[in-house]
Specification:
CATH architecture of the largest domain: 2-Layer Sandwich
Radius of gyration: 23 Å
Number of domains: 4
Number of helices: 19
Helix content: 25-40%
CATH class of the largest domain: Alpha Beta
CATH topology of the largest domain: Uridine Diphospho-n-acetylenolpyruvylglucosamine Reductase, domain 2
Number of strands: 18
Strand order of the largest sheet: 15-12-14-13-17-18-16
Mean pLDDT: 95
Largest sheet: 7 strands, antiparallel
Shape: globular
């Protein structure tokens, strides 16, 4: 059902990789700082030797599912169940290599229409079968895991629901099924000279429904907005009914029900279609790169631009350590100093030239160094997860943590989280390296995105990761940061959500969950921690 095979054990396509050895300066830096041993590789196991427990559905149950989705809409092989049982977090990929393999779903279903989804949910509600919606499988927060293994589970893969349903060029609104992936959506829009402007790092594999369910953000979000700014309406099929909600153009008709589906991560139901705002395809794109003496100077420039209403469409400000990593990845052993800001603009040709001039004016505390670094980053922006696979090959713990806060708290949060990350890594008995960048800016604040590295502790890989993850999450929450800016909640963050939003808001969300999903069949353990 997919023309180009994807890896079962890592990110992306089987025929695409990015070996760490292809970036010798970066490899040398990591070996030095992390004190990596020589030739200590973590192999990928033989998938044919992985044994999963048999499906718990009877032949009668399988026959019922076939009536709903047809023979092509059902899969029960070990390979299908394995690949649908995990996302692409560091924890997921380490477990696939070292075990234990997470409990898989008992069955994978590929519905093709809203009516099929509705019948599946009705059947599963009657039998108390758990349902996990699946878009592109790119979750990095444990959004696909089976966490109630005492109950049978089905995973609903929406890849067959990938049609463009309507194009309203006068209103710049497009309606599409939620299983459409980023590349196909953009290809369909290009025929009308339109674009979503939404390009998350997972763009090649993630889906429209997945973007909405996880509140994703794209590289050009400062121009086009996060996904919640783009969506104008959607259809949510829940165990309690079918909900068609919209919010465009603005209106005064009570609370905004559309916002309830945003970030719901399959816990309320299945998003099967959405209407989104689109834009005319840009005529041109322009880049600039600016070197600052300090991360602080770069932050002040970005804050001024955001608050004056002229933020770069793409803004990627690296601190000193992340700049050092970026320079090494480009093949240089030069020592970084300060911070590096990459910016891009797109739109009419004259407009983007003027925009770059405005950026240089606001960034007078830094030195322009040309379009090259920003343009290279943009061209290679989808490569990072492939490089992470190679780092795991070399037994490197590599992961990310992201948050957001107001400008008045941003630098305090940055220092506190970086300190918490390093302390967490050191607490496991190894050296660490932590970089950070800002990539989404608003008049009131900005995001912080940390990337951290450490040598894996053999035999303790998951315990080591848990210790570091706990340390960084505490550092975020204890210093006024959001639990997540765009990765979502999933299993990884679910136990912290009540603390993050407060008891009263938590109880309100629990009431909504019970209303939409009375028997609790929808993606248990995600957003709402088990037993909470």
């Amino acid at each position: 059902m997919q023309a180009r095979p994807a890896k079962w054990w890592g990110w992306g396509f089987e025929d695409r990789s990015l070996p760490l050895e292809s970036k010798p300066a970066l490899f040398a830096l990591l070996r030095q700082v992390l004190e990596l041993p020589d030739a200590d590789l973590l192999p990928v196991p033989d998938v044919d030797r992985i044994r999963l427990p048999p499906t718990r559905f009877s032949d009668t149950d399988l026959a019922e599912f076939r009536k709903m989705v047809g023979e092509e809409g059902i899969a029960a092989s070990d390979r299908d169940r394995l690949t649908h049982g995990v996302g692409r977090s560091y924890r997921d990929l380490v477990r696939l290599r070292l075990g234990p393999i997470p409990p898989p779903p008992d069955l994978v279903l590929f519905p093709e229409a809203d009516g099929e989804v509705q019948r599946i949910l009705e059947f599963c509600s009657e039998r108390e079968v758990r349902v996990i919606p699946y878009g592109g499988g790119t979750s990095v927060v444990g959004g696909l895991e089976v966490v109630e293994p005492t109950h049978p589970h089905v995973t609903l893969d929406l890849r067959r629901m990938r049609q463009m349903l309507a194009v309203d060029e006068a209103s710049l609104l497009v309606t599409a099924q939620a299983g459409i992936r980023g590349p196909l959506l953009e290809e369909e829009l290009a025929a009308h000279r339109l674009t979503t402007g939404h390009f998350p790092q997972s763009f090649e594999f993630s889906t429209l429904g997945g973007w909405i369910a996880s509140r994703s953000s794209g590289a050009m979000s400062n121009r086009y907005g996060k996904i919640e700014d783009i969506v104008a309406g959607l259809r949510l099929i829940a165990p309690s009914g079918v909900y068609d909600v919209s919010s465009r153009p603005h209106r005064s008709m009570g609370p905004d029900l559309l916002g309830l589906a945003m970030g719901s991560e399959g816990a309320f139901g299945v998003i099967t279609q959405a209407t989104i705002r689109v834009h005319r395809s840009p005529e041109a794109r322009a880049f600039e790169s600016i070197q600052f003496r300090s991360f602080h100077d770069g932050l002040e420039s970005l804050r001024a631009m955001a608050q004056d209403g002229v933020p770069p469409h793409l803004a990627y400000l690296m601190d000193e350590d992340e700049t050092r990593l970026a320079i090494a990845a480009e093949g240089s052993a030069a020592r970084a100093a300060g911070g590096l800001l990459l910016v891009a603009y797109e739109g009419p040709r004259k407009s983007v030239r003027d925009d770059v001039a405005v950026a240089r004016k606001y960034c007078s505390a830094g030195s322009p160094i040309g379009a090259g670094p920003a343009e290279r980053w943009f061209q290679e922006r989808y490569d990072g997860p492939y490089l992470r696979d190679s780092m795991i090959d070399h037994r490197i713990l590599m992961d990310t943590a992201e948050t957001a806060t107001v400008w008045s708290n941003l630098e305090r949060l940055y220092e506190a989280v970086k300190k918490a990350l390093l302390a967490g890594i050191w607490g496991t008995g190894v050296q660490g390296l932590v970089g950070c960048h800002v990539s989404h800016v608003y008049p009131e604040g900005a995001s912080l995105y940390f990337t951290f590295f450490a040598r894996q502790k053999r035999g303790e890989e998951l315990a080591q990761y848990d210790a570091v993850k706990s340390a960084v999450t505490r550092g975020i929450l204890d210093n006024g940061g959001h639990l997540s800016h765009h990765h979502g909640v999933g299993v990884e963050h679910a136990k912290y959500l009540r603390e993050a939003i407060g008891d009263d808001a938590w109880r309100l969300l629990r009431s909504l969950k019970r209303t939409l999903d009375p028997k609790g069949i929808m993606n248990p353990g995600k957003v709402y921690a088990m037993g909470a």
